[in-house]
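Hello support,

Our group uses your service weekly, and this is the first time we've seen a run hang past the timeout. The protein is TIGR04086 family membrane protein. I'm not sure whether the cause is the sequence or the server load. Input pasted verbatim:
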Amino acid sequence: MKQRKSRHEQQNQEESFVKTYLKPVGIGLGVGVAVLFVLLLIFSLIISAKDFPSGLILPLSLFCLSVGALAAGFVSAKLAGEHGLFYGFCCGLILSILILICTMITGQSYLSVTGIYKFLCAIIFASLGGIFGVNQRRRRK
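Update from on-call engineer: The timeout came from a worker crash unrelated to the input. Re-ran successfully.
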């Protein structure tokens, strides 16, 4: 006969889930969004100060997104210490969903070729960041 788990055991499992999965992904996303914000701020200041062609805006924004996603995947996998591809993919997926929400709020169309590029960049670079984060050597003290 299957025994029911006590409240204490259920609470420990919930805390374990949060510590194992949600904490690394949340911290990684925070770092990734901060990196993305800082890079976009720097490039927007450069673009507004100088005369840039409008054709450079999309590549610069994709570059910023790629670096932010790489940072998010790297930090989350580094904190988790294992399953870098999984943590990176989760960060890239959530980052893509955040970008989708932001573009829907501003009234732009995300379901275009540009939106697909953004989605793929976020997923691929966050997954690569996760792989790099897990495979980086630990520092010796």
